[in-house]
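Worked example

This section walks through a single chain of length 749. The input is the sequence exactly as stored; nothing has been trimmed or padded.
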Amino acid sequence: MEAFFPFLLESLPPIPQSPHAAPFLILSTLQEPAWLGSSAAGPGLPTSGEEGENARQELGSRQRISSDQRAPRWGSAGPRDSRIPEQSPSSHRCWLAEKGFENQLAELQGFKHNRQGDRGKGEGRLGHRPHPQPEPSLCCGLCSQGQQRPWGQSESALAATASLGVSGTRDNDPRNGGGPGAMKPVQVVTLWWVLLLVSRLGAARKGSPEEASFYYGTFPLGFSWGVGSSAFQTEGAWDQDGKGPSIWDAFTHSGKGKVLGDETADVACDGYYKVQEDIILLRELRVSHYRFSLSWPRLLPTGVRADKVNKRGIKFYSDFIDALLKSNITPIVTLHHWDLPQLLQVKYGGWQNGSMVNYFGDYADLCFEAFGDRVKHWITFSDPRTMAEKGFETGHHAPGLQLHGTGLYRAAHHIIKAHAQAWHSYNSTWRAKQRGLVGISLNCDWGEPVDISSPKDIEAAERYLQFCLGWFANPIYAGDYPQVMKERIGKKSVEQGLDMSRLPVFSLQEKSYIKGTSDFLGLGHFTTRYITERNYPSRQGPSYQNDRDLVELVDPNWPDLGSKWLYSVPWGFRRLLHFAQTQYGNPPIYVTENGVSQKLHCTQLCDEWRIQYLKGYINEMLKAIKDGANIKGYTSWSLLDKFEWEKGYSDRYGFYYVEFNNRNKPRYPKASVQYYEKIITANGFPNPREVESWYLKALETCSINNQMLAAEPLLSHMQMVTEIVVPTVCTLCVLISAVLLMLLLRSQS
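Given that input, the structure is written out below as tokens.
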């Protein structure tokens, strides 16, 4: 859900240690740790004098924040979970954003009391008109979904009410008791809830954790830097060299408006035919590793190993891995990044069927056998939560099913068991010979409570993280689903008249089999949400959203990147890393996805917003390492602009711009290429002057690249002339010469 409401994090009060509150890693009090020196963000937790002195000796004259600002450590309290963060002497509070506070509150009050204002054609009732293009800081994220804003309703009110599932269209329908001048009870309740929420937040003030001091330092020796991609998004060649169809091929070829612009990935970046060219780009970036995925249907056209193994697919990936290693680039290989073979979906129902566990196991064994002598880092699944939610709940992704409140849990259940089986297979058969690692990549945004003094908001934020990250991580690290998921979904299932919970149950044997099946935790992260409690009645029917009982909000003061959902909130990254560190026993962590899409729809190589995003998020990761998180590597997303699932080619996450309208799919470096390369070379941020020089040089270089890209149409025409016109003219000249020669010979004879 991409609704938002204007909030600003500042001075949050300490968490009340209520035995009824769910355990939650509140890092609102998390400012810079002791080793950073002084900060404008205010005091935090005290640290030992010895540790503070060591930090000061290590950093010397570098920028620091005071030694009483260390990341909170867990104590013991509470019957449900013994981990409660230490209290901070500083108080923090979540306030309504100062920007536009009075106007927005007035709009909300005006909407409550003056719904029947005279606004054009909607006079006397809540009419509709096309949603205007909002200002960036107030974009409600509904434009692309074809939703419209009711007249008289502010952007802020629309954001909150949209998140509650309130539809102005239904409320105006006479069949639903609406019509001109009618005000539905659900809207009254919604407005009451929004106004109550506003009143809770107090007066507006300025400040943000993002204003904390930047840390200049380096990453540990051997830290691995990389970029990533996935097979379906980049390879193209969808039916070449023996590849079978995937569910995404079927989904994009259906022609039912499921993808923006009815785009397909039939060609995508043409990566299947541009391996050497893309490896040159990786060398330019000087990355340590490259994360990519294997196409299951390219290796097994039907999805079943017993049917057929595509030797050309095996050779393609084998040659690619060899080329990476020759360039001193470590391959990190994902087995499944959403492109399930279509025949498995048609014949068995895909991940709704438990037989996928064995089919995936056979596929994984094939990959271990064919590539494991050279691949030492395996990822079984990439972001399975999104795969399950969008594929089987909302239907926005392939296979496009809407099995509300049931299909996603069933799919996830089978995915978790498939992951465990693949891990055990590697552990028992291949590990001794190949000495590699097998993990999983889980994506999750950070969830921050709106009101840190509210136990309900604290519980809601904890619930958000457990339904997001814990859904898959908890079975792998603890043997079962998070308790809050089992309780919530079980209770709502009973209230909905079901005999058993919609959340499947692991047997005791399965719990033991699944627990501990990860050599590292792959963690993907892009942005942050504020979370507040919102109870959805069970009578609304089963759904993932209703099961969570919460609302996601964002702060319009967060840097606007032009995306409908992705805001730059670096401090949330550090908090999520700390949460994973403490929640799952400080496992080795590889950041497997982190990046930002293009701000403008027009061609833009001077992506300074991406530079700022990288700088902020990578710095927060560095701070998390100093906090004690065991982070081994970082993968920025992504190497190239590529096919972005239901968004088509509208979002561009790449370091390299791809001209999709050109049949050769040329790549052009953006400014962020040079900036990221400098971070990699320095292994961090050495000093302010040098880091600033990276930024300036990157922007200078991108100006030249922009000129090259601007000349691309002329080059394309010249290429066309070279390939078509010149050969044609030459052929005509030869023919004319031949005719003239014949005439000359005839005249002489």
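What to look for: The first helix runs from residue 49 to 59.
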